[in-house]
Automatic annotation (TrEMBL):
Protein name, UniProt field: Uricase
Pathways per UniProt: Purine metabolism; urate degradation; (S)-allantoin from urate: step 1/3
Residues that hold 5-hydroxyisourate according to the record: 48-49, 150, 167, 216, 242
Protein task: Catalyzes the oxidation of uric acid to 5-hydroxyisourate, which is further processed to form (S)-allantoin.
Listed GO CC annotations: peroxisome
Upper taxonomic lineage: Eukaryota, Metazoa, Chordata, Craniata, Vertebrata
Residues noted as binding O2 in the record, renumbered to the chain: 48, 242
Broad class of enzyme this protein falls into: oxidoreductase
Oxidoreductase found in the keyword field: yes
Record: residues binding urate: 48-49, 150, 167, 216, 242
Single GO BP term: purine nucleobase catabolic process
Pfam families referenced in this protein's UniProt entry, alphabetically: Uricase (PF01014)
């Protein structure tokens, strides 16, 4: 049991310069006894309101140096403070605020909400067990206008989809990876590096791109690049929810539409998912 969607903004000041970190936290516990479920005995139950207050107090006292470190701080607090806690899991999700720049100069106290992917992490620990940390990015919307196709797929009497050598590849990406046992990592640096790998593998070189024969191959390319460049990642899961675009038929309007006006197919949409780990 636990407390979901604990939302707050942590403000840190260094002179005139302000730093903000807005997060949403979910913290769940498993106790050494199930007597509250079986017998209605609540003597070991930590109220969910107390869980919420602990999260807020830790934010006040320790700050949020990184999402991962804050999740670790929460797990360690419950493990070291309450002997009745057998397992704790914490999920932390960040609101994507970025410092506002004016004419290339960073503003000291103003920020802009940039929807270019949401960072999140999880930390979990069993009593007498290792602390395990996961991190990821979700709601990252990506598109490339060419260098994608889908051909040579299995066909039968139910197949109506035409083969395409040149199409738009667009989707919303979810990516989650495992660090294994927690170590003294530079979580910010690793997260930024993985995000760069995702963009590089999806788009290819900036001057020419790279052809994608399928959404599945793009998913695998992302995973392989991350595993080759980021040694701290042990397992990586990628889900790509696809958005398809159809060319608008403008013959009745007396116009030829050479892939210039397209409409998105909202539902149903495709989805490709794969989990890949080191041997």
């Amino acid at each position: 049991y636990g407390k979901n969607t604990i939302k707050f903004l942590r403000l840190h000041r260094e002179g005139k310069k302000h730093f903000v970190k807005e997060v949403e936290v979910c913290t769940h516990l498993r106790l050494t006894s199930a007597q509250e479920y079986l017998e209605g005995n609540n003597c070991l139950v930590i109220p969910t309101d107390t869980i919420k207050n602990i999260v807020l107090v830790l934010a006040k006292e320790k700050g949020i140096p990184t999402l991962e470190q804050f999740a670790i701080d929460i797990c360690q607090h419950f493990m070291t403070t309450f002997c009745q806690v057998a397992y704790v899991k914490t999920y932390v999700q960040e609101v994507p605020w970025q410092r506002l720049h004016e004419n290339g100069v960073p503003h000291v106290h103003s920020f802009i909400h940039v929807p270019d992917g949401i960072r999140f992490c999880e930390a979990e620990q069993c009593r007498n067990g290792p602390l395990v940390v996961f991190a990821g990015i979700k709601d990252l919307k990506l598109m490339k206008a060419t260098q994608s196709g889908f051909e040579g797929f299995y066909k039968n009497e139910h197949t109506t989809l035409p083969e395409r050598h040149d199409r738009i590849l667009c989707g919303e990406l979810f990516c989650k990876w495992s660090y294994g046992e927690c170590k003294d990592f530079d979580f910010d640096c690793i997260w930024n590096k993985i995000r760069e790998c995702i963009l590089e593998a999806f788009a290819g070189p900036p001057d020419c791109g790279e052809y994608s024969p399928s959404y599945q191959k793009t998913v695998n390319s992302i995973q392989m690049l991350v595993l080759s460049k980021v040694s701290q990642v042990q397992v990586i899961e990628v889900v790509l929810n696809n958005t398809f675009y159809n060319i608008v038929d403008m013959k009745n309007l007396g116009l030829t539409n050479d892939k210039e006006v397209l409409v998105p197919v909202e539902t149903p949409y495709g989805s490709c998912a794969c989990t890949l780990g080191r041997k």
